[in-house]
Amino acid sequence: MQKGFIFDLDGVIVDTAKYHYQCWQKIAEHAGVKFSLEENEELKGVGRVQSLEWILKKTSKKFSQKQKDIWLEEKNQHYVSLIKDMTRKELLPGVLAVMEKIRDTGHRMALGSASKNAKLILDILRLTSSFDVIVDGKSVQHTKPNPEGFLLAAELMRIPPENCVVFEDAIAGVQAANAAGMLSIGIGKQKYLHEAIHCFESFAEMDQTFLDNLILVNE
Ligand code: B16
Ligand code: MG
Q1: pLDDT per residue over 101-133, tens digit each?
Q2: Is this prediction's pTM over 0.85?
Q3: Domain with CATH 1.10.150.240 in the chain
Q4: CATH architecture for the domain at 4-15+87-216
Q5: How far is the CA of 185 from the centre of ligand 2 (A)?
Q6: 8 an active-site residue?
Q7: pLDDT tens digits for 29-42?
Q8: 44 lines ligand 1 (CB under 6 A)
Q9: CA distances from 148 to 41, 101, 131, 177, 179 (A)
């Protein structure tokens, strides 16, 4: 049985959460609100516009759409300036080995990211050709926890959702995978990702027998 493996990008393949956080902190400062690292967990996997709205809910001040658009543009320019110098050293531990193992077994692989910068990041990391399908923030109307992106990835891979596995670092992404009827595997802290069916601190911590069983081809 051929399976579809869907990888989230930020926080699963590469550690970009720190850059998103740095950029949102600047915007929060402009808006006069405090924004902590703990709160940043809530924004993982959440689209850019929704992330700004989340931050602005922390203040009773009202901002015009023009002001919001300026901040969205500023946030993205800052973010792009930080990621452009990224190297493969910033790939998360164990992810490449897992990707290779899946590829060697003949399964299909998709990227399922909420980021509109996903293709740029894959190019920078020379990973674009590793995926059969790329679904990013530009491909969908609704971002995680809505399952639209993962369902689209399954459709494009031609694999039924119940035969898909999703690797996610975000609460919103785990919820999206569950809503899509896929097997959710959290990569990160169990305290945030307890809704995932399985959870590992990182790919490097993933039990090899578990991985072998996951990618086992049942005829
Ligand atoms: P951008 P993922 C998500 O990517 C990030 O986790 C989230 O923090 C970010 O706000 C979102 O992409 C949008 O990113 O501003 O680059 O379009 O984790 O779904 O790969
Ligand atoms: Mg993520």
Answers
A1: 999 999 999 999 999 999 999 999 999 999 999
A2: yes
A3: 17-83
A4: 3-Layer(aba) Sandwich (3.40)
A5: 12
A6: yes
A7: 999 999 999 999 88
A8: yes
A9: 21, 27, 19, 10, 9
| CATH architecture, domain 17-83 | Orthogonal Bundle (1.10)
* Secondary structure, 3-state, 157-217: HCCCHHHEEEEECCHHHHHHHHHCCCEEEEECCCCCCCCCCEEECCHHHCCHHHHHHHHCC
d(C-alpha 200, C-alpha 207), whole Å: 9
Residues with CB in 5 Å of ion ligand 2: 8, 10-11, 45, 169-170
136-to-57, 63, 115, 141 alpha-carbon distances in Å: 26, 28, 6, 11
Adjacency order of strands within the sheet including 164-168 = 133-135, 108-112, 4-7, 164-168, 183-187, 198-200
Q: What is the pLDDT of residues 148-205, one digit of tens each?
A: 999 999 999 999 999 999 999 999 999 999 999 999 999 999 999 999 999 999 999 9
Q: Using a 6 Å cutoff on CB, does residue 48 contact ligand 1?
A: yes
Domain with CATH 3.40.50.1000 in the chain: 4-15+87-216
For tokens 């911590």, name the residue. 205
Could you confirm whether 169 is annotated as catalytic? Answer: no
